[in-house]
Specification:
Blueprint lengths: L9 H12 L5 E6 L3 E6 L13 H16 L1
Antiparallel strand pairs: 1-2
Length: 71
């Protein structure tokens, strides 16, 4: 799991990471203000340099983030 601690740099960090690691790979970059940045591979083993949280964990995080923004 890769983290970027400065929230306002998240977008540019995502772009940088996707341009570096995203060639010929289905990558997803998710940024949470509180937790930093997560780079996830669409296929297992595609990005050996990065530890990937499970899809279920990410979806749970993402959904809880959306719910907290709504309330």
């Amino acid at each position: 799991m890769m983290r970027v601690s400065v929230p306002d740099k998240c977008d540019s960090s995502c772009q940088t990471l996707l341009s570096e690691f995203g060639q010929n790979r289905p990558l997803l970059c998710i940024c949470f203000a509180e937790m930093g940045l997560f780079l996830v591979s669409g296929k297992s083993g595609d990005v050996p340099l990065l530890k990937r949280p499970s899809s279920a964990d990410l979806i749970a995080l993402f959904m809880s983030q959306i719910e907290s923004e709504r309330s």
